[in-house]
Write a structure and sequence with these properties.
Structural class: alpha+beta
Shape: globular
Largest sheet: 6 strands, mixed
Strand order of the largest sheet: 1-2-8-7-6-5
Order of helices and strands: HEEHEEHHEEEEH
Number of strands: 8
Number of domains: 1
Radius of gyration: 16 Å
Distance between the termini: 24 Å
Strand content: 15-25%
Number of helices: 5
Helix content: 25-40%
Length: 165
């Protein structure tokens, strides 16, 4: 049994706390993103994690849109309140990546090596892309489909088996 304390995730940022004013809520969520990834940058493996800015979406960092909106078409993504509520989770997972409640593994997508950080209890995933001297926050999201959670856990298990074989 681990003697490490249970992870206590940051509080969600609720839309209802903004009395249904989406513009104010959006500004508040974006301010958290700016504080946690632009004004200061978390580190993973002692390398900074940056948030790609370009191409801008309505003058806003592309990464912000990617982690707070959903949809296949990058030009037509829709706000996802569950993603927005969890705006504090990506940095939290990155800085706590060594905690036993977080599953961390690598995979390859096209030519990129990705680092996946997943917490099953919160059903939340953060994905980083390796670069030579830093990491990029690629995406982060609430995993709301049971089959998607199973797929992530299966990929993690396969990764661990290759590392211990």
């Amino acid at each position: 049994m681990s003697t490490e304390a249970t992870l206590i995730f940051p509080e969600l940022l609720y839309f209802t706390d903004y009395n249904g004013n989406f513009a104010e809520y959006f500004k508040a969520v974006y301010a958290v993103f700016v504080n946690e990834f632009i004004k200061s940058q978390p580190k993973y493996n002692n390398l900074k994690v940056s948030a790609p800015k370009y191409p801008l979406q309505d003058g806003i960092h592309r990464t912000f849109y990617h982690i707070t909106h959903e949809g296949e078409d990058e030009q037509d993504r829709k706000p996802d309140i569950r993603r927005m509520e969890r705006i504090r989770f990506p940095r939290f997972l990155i800085i706590n990546c060594s905690h036993p409640e977080l599953l961390v593994w690598k995979n390859t997508r096209r030519k990129d090596t990705r680092v996946l950080i997943f917490n099953e209890k919160e059903s939340y995933l953060t994905v980083l892309t390796e670069r030579d001297e830093y990491y990029m926050l690629w995406t982060a999201y609430y995993v709301d489909q049971t089959h998607s959670v199973r797929k992530l856990l299966k990929e993690y298990d396969a990764y661990i088996k290759t590392k211990t074989a």
